[in-house]
């Protein structure tokens, strides 16, 4: 008898449970709406960042030869020490030089306008042809480009009360002193998307990349460095790392070429001091 009573106590009364939900339907509905609202806001305003990475091997200078020893005497921004190489890679001048490369055009940001959120992309349906001086004199200028057909597009900006139809390859002027040409990206199949375009300050872009760049040693004794960068578009981050390494190698080569000249000047200076000493003696 006691076992049957315990079994009955463990059975859920679905009828009572159902009427409890019905009697409190307002609170359940409010909870569902609130959860959907929070999910929407999170999806709408959360910026997703993707990591790009690469590994490089840094060759340490051989200090056993006199010429390399003399070069090390004058090393102010370069050093055989791996820590100095890390510092060189994350310095603002090198990053700004990378960002300012005319092939990258990081002064122009392309984003795809979706139903819920706008997402930055490196491969956009359209490609802008505009001088860097124009973008830097019109920082934060934003406009949308909507492709109508294979030859025409619609360019718009609500703040400027602008809505104009134009043809690809045609020279147009959004604001006074801001001529540009919009070309179609034939490499993309899905081009029926609205593209948001914004001009950005190269200084701000460089600072943004610097804050998201991370350089680490593989191990304490290793001369292999790992570079990491976080960006909304992973391809954009990968291209930046490759260009950063290219600029770093160019800078390093210039330094190495200047090394022998510094060594000769150092030797001449020492000889002059010795001659002056011998004359006095």
Notes on the protein architecture:
With 281 residues, the protein is of the alpha+beta class. Helix content is 46%, strand content 24%. The chain is built from nine helices and twelve strands. It has helices at 2-10, 14-23, 25-45, 66-73, 82-89, 92-99, 132-137, 202-212, 234-280; strands at residues 50-57, 108-113, 118-121, 126-129, 142-147, 152-157, 162-167, 171-173, 179-184, 194-199, 213-217, 224-231. The strands form three sheets. Strands 3-2-10-5-6-7 form a six-stranded antiparallel β-sheet, with no helix packed on it. A hairpin with a 4-residue loop joins strand 6 and strand 7 (162-167). Helix 4 crosses helix 9 (234-280) and helix 6 (92-99) packs across helix 8 (202-212). 14% of the residues are buried. Residues 62-71 and 73-79 have low confidence and may be disordered.
Keywords:
single chain; 281 residues; alpha+beta; three-stranded antiparallel beta sheet; 9 helices; 46% helix; flat
Low-confidence stretches: 62-71, 73-79
List how many beta strands DSSP finds: 12
Report Rg: 31 Å
Strands ordered across the widest β-sheet? 3-2-10-5-6-7
Average per-residue pLDDT, rounded, comes to 81
Distance between the termini: 123 Å
* Main beta sheet: 6 strands, antiparallel
Class computed from helices, strands and strand pairing = alpha+beta
Give the CA-based shape: flat
